[in-house]
Amino acid sequence: MRKLTYYVAATIDGFIATEDGSVDFFPVGGDHGPAITAQYPETLPSRVREALGITKRNANFDTVIMGRRTHDFGVRTGTANPYAHLRQYVVSTTLTEPPDPAVALIGADPVTAVAELKREHGLGIWLCGGGELARALLPEIDQVFLKLYPIVLGRGRPLFGSGPQLPDPACFRVITSQVFEDGVAFVKYSRVG
Fold first, then answer.
1. Less Cβ crowding at N or C end of the chain, within 10 Å?
2. What is the residue-wise DSSP string for the chain?
3. What is the DSSP pairing of strand 61-67 with strand 124-129?
4. Residue 76: pLDDT above 80?
């Protein structure tokens, strides 16, 4: 069975974006970027891959799932088809049709849709964001790959959204970790049980 991996960047106080969705506070550069990109080249948008001359086949993921606000970030930067090298899904209860012919829409019950995708053959499924969707899909998340930046934001969009208290804690264990010279920690977690 395929795994759903929430691969995301966060601050040490647990935010993935500012309240308005900006991620400009995450520094670009440093030694973590090339090292992580070498392992997970498919997590770069297609235009960035082309600009960097990355032609590697997908090694870890062949499918990406994102919430509407995460997808809208790509639209604001000029593309409704940000990951053309992956099967793309946008989860939204407000969109009435797919935002691009290459992007499929999940309009209701994302947990069931993801469970069905996990039963298919193929590489892993990347949950690109955002926090509210991660909270909804928590029962199906098998792994969390966290790029942890040494930044305290104070407020913003939480790693797992906000909402009512979860019925039970979701427990994960560290499977690998690496701290880079630029201070970014890349920690991989796997669900316990």
1. C
2. ---EEEEEEEETTSEEE-TTS--TTSPP-SSHHHHHHHH-GGGS-HHHHHHHT--PPPSSEEEEEEEHHHHHHHHHTT-S-TTTTSEEEEE-SS-SS-SSTTEEEE-S-HHHHHHHHHHSSSSEEEEEE-HHHHHHHGGGEEEEEEEEES---SSSEETT---SPPSSPPPEEEEEEEE-TTS-EEEEEEE--
3. parallel
4. no
Work out the average pLDDT over 165-181.
Answer: 93
Closest C-alpha to 126, from 32, 53, 55, 45: 45
Q: What pLDDT is stored for residue 98 in this prediction?
A: 86
Tell me: the pLDDT tens digits for 177-188?
999 999 999 999
Tokens 């039970």 sit at which residue? 168
**Residues 92/105, Cβ–Cβ less than 8 Å:** yes
